[in-house]
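Sample entry (102 residues):
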Amino acid sequence: MDAAESRPSHLYTRLTLCAMGRRKSKRKPPPKKKMTGDLDSQFTCPFCNHEKSCDVKMERSRNTGIISCTVCLEEFQTPITYLSEAVDVYSDWIDACEAANQ
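Predicted structure, serialized as C-alpha cells:
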C-alpha cells in the first residue's frame, strides 16, 4: 500500500498546497517623521495685543508656571505637572481671561 493512499485526500491536498508557494509580502509604509520643531515660548499678550511680548517661566521645583508680559507687566501663575509645556501655561491664561469676561 502506498503512503499517499493511506492518507485522507483532503490532508494530502493541504500539504501540497502549502508547499507550492507563499503569499506575496506587502511593502510596509515608511515610518512617520516626528515633529522636530520646538514649541514657542513667547506669546501674544491678550491685554495689550503685542506679539511675542509674553515670556513663560516654568518653575518645576515649585510646580508652577508663570507667564508675564514685558510691555503691560500683566502676570499669570498656574500649577503645572511634569508633562506641562509653555503653551499649556499660555492656554490656561487665555482660558482664565475668557472665564473672567463671562
